[in-house]
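Hello Y.,

Per our agreement to keep a running log of every chain we model this quarter, I'm adding this entry. I've kept the format consistent with earlier entries: sequence first, then predicted structure.
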Amino acid sequence: MNLSGKRNSLNNEEAILLAAFCYQTYVLFLNGSITLPKGYELKYVIRADVNVENPTNEVFGFIAESNKNIIIAFRGYALYPADLIAAYDILQIPYPYVEMGGNTSRGFTCIYQSTRNKLMKEINKFPKHKKLFVTGHNYGGALATLAVFDIVANTKFKDAFAYTYGSPRVGDPEFTFRFNQLVKNSKRIVNIHDPFTTFPEKVYPPPFTDRGLYYQHVNTKYPISFQLNDTPRNDGIGCYFKNLSHLNRDYSSKLCSENPGFCPDSEMCFPFQRSCNCPKPCM
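Predicted structure for the entry above:
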């Protein structure tokens, strides 16, 4: 599988493949095992601390490698209530890894900080000639955004690619400006009916804090549309995968048939729910 990308267009094979990688982050969290497509090998399991007040070390993703590519994938919301506590910690702290990097969500930034040094050590082991992709779904999209910014600024992988699915906002306008300057290959895939992409709000005026809080999305938005009248399905990685698969049915069909267990079950509400009684399946 040869991945490539252009800044202002979506490579549908990349988008489909990396959505399936995002799904596998939940499988790893739930089962402690993972299914990867042919040619890829699991190289590292990402663990991070969640919940600042009562830190708990949990699986947050993995790194996989093929002969051409490196995939870093982060999971989103899967652990109640610790993940929600982190996500709703929207007070901002300075992003510490890039000069003039602005301010970012304290909850997400603390998760990333707790794993950052080990993650960077692993990344630096890989050869420079390989393409590096950072991906994440839901809150994992926020972690992927924080990580790719750091990677582009501070490693040999200056052309790293970011693919996020249903990501929330991560930082303030200064952070977004610097991110867009440095990260030239960012794809922020958004279901326009996914409520998680509207969080945090753009503005929390004083007296929430003395100066207020300001959030802004990073580039580059690629909108898709599926309205299932159900919040979990509108955000589900299985539904993102199924709708993106419509862009290249042949590739998606081949990917899934040749790699049993790799592709998401598009009928699940959330990736970590075994079953549910949602009103309608992905379409």
